[in-house]
Structures are given as structure tokens and as C-alpha cells.
Amino acid sequence: MTSSDMNYLTIALPKGKLFDLSANLLAKVGFTAEGLSENSRKLVITNEAAKIRFIITKTQDLPTYVEYGAADIGIIGKDVLLEENKNVYELLDLKYGFCRLMAAVPQSLLQEKMSDYAHMRVATKYPRVAEQYFHSLGIQMEIIKLNGSIELAPMVGLAELIVDIVETGRTLKENNLIEVASIHPATARLIANRVSFKMKFDRIHKLSEDLKCLLESEAK
Ligand SMILES: Nc1ncnc2c1ncn2[C@@H]1O[C@H](COP(=O)(O)OP(=O)(O)OP(=O)(O)O)[C@@H](O)[C@H]1O
Ligand SMILES: O=P(O)(O)OC[C@H]1O[C@H](OP(=O)(O)OP(=O)(O)O)[C@H](O)[C@@H]1O
């Protein structure tokens, strides 16, 4: 299956926190399929009548599916887009999934200025974002890539700092971590494969416009 199948529009949705919000939003503009659920073990769900195909991916892999055209479009957090840095079009800010990328340290390691953290270890799920951020400050750090529960790393001496996303701040607070730098805000984005955007322009453009109108009307 490839999106070169001109009859279908293939939409990638990520498992996890953005799945339900994204599936519900798309349903409101008529893009849905029977059995579309994060809990389903089916990874490809097709609506034959509407010529829509959904694929369900791991969050971090979604931009890769869209870059290679295995999906025409997808929905993914800006944090993941910044980290994965794939060659895709970002069409629309969907204004949900609010969080921000930031750096934090345990209270006991708090320094006066960012340069005081030079050469310390940073645990993160976002090594590229972390590397770029510290590089932009002219600070060299040792980046340690982890896949989750990042807040654990400073508590057990794996790293001094973390770079992660924060939403409510509850996880930081419960683990005695203090935010020392805000790196980038993030929300869910509609993205498109560059070739698909040209070849299936009418469908993708209409979907993007319909979503934009819906978000504007819901914001009123
Ligand atoms: N509190 C939050 N925690 C995590 N992600 C959030 C939060 N708020 C918004 N988001 C957004 O939701 C996206 C998906 O989060 P989720 O935790 O499902 O990611 P994941 O990497 O798939 O998780 P896991 O690796 O645990 O399966 C994030 O990339 C981010 O854009
Ligand atoms: O500010 P808060 O509202 O507390 O949310 C932030 C937390 O949520 C995310 O973790 P997630 O639940 O995705 O688990 P993970 O650490 O395994 O990625 C993120 O990595 C933080 O740990």
C-alpha cells in the first residue's frame, strides 16, 4: 500500500495522548472510519465509501510515514516535528495538545545561570532539540537519550538535567524538579507529504480549510 494510490487519502494518526482528540476532530469534518480506535489492534482502517484510509503509528515514527508518502497527511505534536526534523509540510496548528519543551533540574542542583550547567548530563527523549538548544547557548552538554519517565534520571544520578515536555507541571513538582529554561511551545499540527500535497491538493486543501473553519468556530 502506498499513497501513490490516487483514489485514497491516507491519514496517519499517532497512538497515545493525541489519538482521541485527533480522531474526534477529523470525524467532525467527515473523516472517519468504522472501527477507528486506539485500542484496536488493526493498524490500517479503511472507509471504502469515502476513500479514506487511516494508519495508526507510534508517535515518534509518524513524521517518517508522512515524509516517505506511506501516509499523505498526519497529525502530530510540534515537539515530535522539531525532534524528527522530517521533510514534510506543516499545514495547520490544530490548537490542542498544549505543552512546552523545557529544561529542568533538581532543586539541589539549581545554578545561577545556564552556563553553570556546562558539561553536565542531560537526559531526554528529545536529543536533537536538547543538542540544538544548548548549542545555541554555546554550552556543551552530554546528552543521554531515554524513551520515557525522563524525570527519573536526575533522581537516581543518571543525569543532572532533563529536557522534556511539561503540561500542567505536576510531574516536575512531584519529582522536585525546577524548570530552568523554556525551549519551545508545542501543539498538535496537521502535516502533509510534499508530493501528496501537490497530487491530492483539492482533498488535502479542503480538509485543511474545513478544519481551520471548525477550529475558528469552536474558539468563538
Ligand atoms: N502532558 C503531556 N504529556 C505528554 N504529551 C503531551 C502532553 N500534553 C500534550 N502532549 C502531546 O501529546 C503527544 C503525544 O504524547 P504521548 O505521551 O502519547 O507520546 P508517546 O511518545 O507516544 O508516549 P509513549 O512513548 O509513552 O507511548 C506529545 O508528543 C505532545 O505533543
Ligand atoms: O506537566 P505534566 O502535566 O505532569 O505532564 C508532563 C509529563 O507527561 C509526559 O510524560 P508521559 O505521560 O507521556 O510519559 P513518559 O514520561 O513515559 O513519556 C512528559 O514526558 C512528562 O513526564
TrEMBL record:
<dbReference type="GO" id="GO:0005737">
    <property type="term" value="C:cytoplasm"/>
</dbReference>
<keyword id="KW-0368">Histidine biosynthesis</keyword>
<dbReference type="GO" id="GO:0003879">
    <property type="term" value="F:ATP phosphoribosyltransferase activity"/>
</dbReference>
<keyword id="KW-0808">Transferase</keyword>
<dbReference type="InterPro" id="IPR024893">
    <property type="entry name" value="ATP_PRibTrfase_HisG_short"/>
</dbReference>
<protein>
    <recommendedName>
        <fullName>ATP phosphoribosyltransferase</fullName>
        <ecNumber>2.4.2.17</ecNumber>
    </recommendedName>
</protein>
<dbReference type="Pfam" id="PF01634">
    <property type="entry name" value="HisG"/>
</dbReference>
<comment type="subunit">
    <text>Heteromultimer composed of HisG and HisZ subunits.</text>
</comment>
<keyword id="KW-0328">Glycosyltransferase</keyword>
<feature type="domain" description="ATP phosphoribosyltransferase catalytic">
    <location>
        <begin position="58"/>
        <end position="212"/>
    </location>
</feature>
<keyword id="KW-0028">Amino-acid biosynthesis</keyword>
<keyword id="KW-0067">ATP-binding</keyword>
<dbReference type="InterPro" id="IPR001348">
    <property type="entry name" value="ATP_PRibTrfase_HisG"/>
</dbReference>
<keyword id="KW-0547">Nucleotide-binding</keyword>
<dbReference type="InterPro" id="IPR013820">
    <property type="entry name" value="ATP_PRibTrfase_cat"/>
</dbReference>
<keyword id="KW-0963">Cytoplasm</keyword>
<comment type="function">
    <text>Catalyzes the condensation of ATP and 5-phosphoribose 1-diphosphate to form N'-(5'-phosphoribosyl)-ATP (PR-ATP). Has a crucial role in the pathway because the rate of histidine biosynthesis seems to be controlled primarily by regulation of HisG enzymatic activity.</text>
</comment>
<comment type="similarity">
    <text>Belongs to the ATP phosphoribosyltransferase family. Short subfamily.</text>
</comment>
<dbReference type="GO" id="GO:0005524">
    <property type="term" value="F:ATP binding"/>
</dbReference>
<dbReference type="GO" id="GO:0000105">
    <property type="term" value="P:L-histidine biosynthetic process"/>
</dbReference>
<comment type="pathway">
    <text>Amino-acid biosynthesis; L-histidine biosynthesis; L-histidine from 5-phospho-alpha-D-ribose 1-diphosphate: step 1/9.</text>
</comment>
<dbReference type="InterPro" id="IPR018198">
    <property type="entry name" value="ATP_PRibTrfase_CS"/>
</dbReference>
